[in-house]
TrEMBL record:
Name recorded for this polypeptide: FAD-binding domain-containing protein
Signal peptide, first to last residue: 1-18
Single GO term (MF): monooxygenase activity
Originating organism: Physocladia obscura
InterPro entries referenced in this protein's UniProt entry, alphabetically: FAD-bd, FAD-dep_Monooxygenase_BioMet, FAD/NAD-bd_sf
SUPFAM superfamilies: FAD/NAD(P)-binding domain (SSF51905)
Gene3D superfamilies in alphabetical order: FAD/NAD(P)-binding domain (3.50.50.60)
Length: 434
């Protein structure tokens, strides 16, 4: 049976799911509200442009891409995260933790835009159609089909619909109502990219000499900076702080680069210098080639990720705080798990969605809750709390991190092994019934 699958959202998880479906002979169609007038490349492949900064491609996410033949290319485009330094805001190192290495593989930092372009090229090569300027308005379902209606008056009908449309998912809102709306964490962030070499002067090299991944935190003032080497030639950074801003302002942010880059460079450079960061980071901000601002949101826990013939993946299902570096990875897991399940049971969508829920709801919500706890450890309301939090970083995280490696537990997950186990169990159950 060939499934026609409507995928709403062309970020990364949606197109990755489309690739799994296409290789199994199904018909995936991808729709995104992005306006091509604002994209740097609207031809083939589909590309949002040079926006955002780096993401951590851990081994659980790598396994998904590798199954599609994209793993080596993703690692080649990124930079190995061999260790991570946890520091005070002035650069004083609290803990230096080696990354977990499994079968010779290690997590990589990669620019989000490079990863999205890599996946977009693969979609083009596999003749997967991606339609832009498609803003979803409504969804209607029957027993055997689902129809999406877009703001331009057009419609699309398929066997199932997948919401891969991010933290502010329209699909989630339609399916589960206003109570499923993502909530603003209070953190506003700016993410930037700086080229190594002359544009960053010697300071870029000095920062990278500190290691490929560094975190600087002022727990009492609630300032947080992450810096990573995202490729052989680029540095990516994120500056976040707890701010009192209207949620509407944070929600309306469209995750596009600042139009007045010099103004934002100056503003942020002055701000972080006042925070007392190492001098080389100030220069990195001043010489950034792009800066993007966004609000940090998380979704409330859902009892299920599907309703009828519609299902959620990625941030649409479980947008989480970035403190574990797992948001992108578990989104890729979703795409891989759902893709393989649909290929195993294409004639029983209800069974696929129930098995998908069984695999994904508990795992993703546990990771989201852990990220929330780590975020709370980052910031304290007293100097005493700050002292004890730093001690936790020095002693607990530093000690166990050196033994077990950075973020080892979440990164050990192999989606294909998990899908195989649940499929074998399900088919065994069917055989016993017969």
């Amino acid at each position: 049976m060939v499934l026609k699958v409507l995928i709403i959202g062309a970020g990364s998880a949606g197109p990755v799911l489309a690739l799994f479906l296409k290789r199994a002979g199904h018909e995936p169609l991808v729709y995104d509200l992005y306006d091509p007038a604002n994209a740097s490349n609207t031809g083939n492949p589909f590309f949002f442009g040079d926006i955002g900064g780096a993401v951590n491609l851990n081994l659980n996410g790598y396994h998904v891409l590798n199954e599609l033949g994209l793993g080596e290319a993703a690692h080649a485009a990124g930079y190995p995260m061999l260790n991570a330094k946890f520091c005070k805001i002035d650069g004083t190192v609290l803990a230096n933790i080696p990354a977990a290495v499994t079968n010779g593989l290690v997590a990589h930092n990669i620019l989000r835009s490079d990863l999205q372009l890599l996946v977009g090229k693969a979609c083009t090569e596999n003749k997967i159609k991606i339609f832009v300027t498609k803003k979803l308005i409504s969804i209607s379902q029957s027993n055997d089909s689902v129809t999406a209606t877009f703001s331009d008056g057009s419609t699309a009908t398929g066997d199932i619909l997948v919401g891969a449309d991010g933290a502010h998912s329209k699909v989630r809102n339609i399916l589960f109502g206003d109570s499923s709306k993502s909530t603003f964490t209070g953190f506003m962030a700016n993410v930037g990219v700086c080229k190594l070499g002359k544009s960053a002067g010697e300071n870029g090299e000095e920062l990278i000499a500190q290691g490929p991944f560094n975190i600087y935190v002022d727990r009492f003032q609630k300032h947080h900076i992450t810096v990573s080497q995202a490729s052989e030639t680029t540095i990516s950074w994120t500056v976040a702080q707890l701010e009192t801003v209207p949620e509407e302002l944070a929600t309306s942010n469209t995750y596009r680069p600042h139009s007045d880059l010099p103004k934002q460079q100056r503003r942020l450079a002055i701000m972080v210098e006042e925070w007392g960061v190492p001098h080389y980071f100030v220069d990195i901000v001043r010489n950034s080639t792009r800066i993007t601002e966004y609000g940090v949101f998380e979704t409330p826990e859902l009892a299920s990720y599907y309703q009828g013939r519609c299902v959620l993946i990625g941030d649409a299902a479980h947008a989480m705080r970035p403190d574990l570096g797992q948001g992108m990875n578990v989104s890729l897991e979703d795409a891989g798990c759902l893709g393989l399940l649909l290929c195993e049971f294409p004639d029983n969508v209800d069974k696929v969605f129930k098995l998908y829920d069984k695999m994904r709801v508990t795992r993703t919500q546990l990771i989201a809750e852990t990220a929330r706890k780590v975020s709370k450890l980052d910031f304290q309301d007293s100097q005493l709390g700050t002292f004890f939090a730093n001690m936790v970083i020095r002693i607990v995280i530093g000690f166990f991190g050196k033994i077990f490696g950075l973020f080892n537990a979440a990164g050990k997950y192999e989606f294909k092994t998990e899908v195989k186990a649940i499929v074998v169990a399900e088919k065994g159950k069917q055989a016993s019934i017969k």
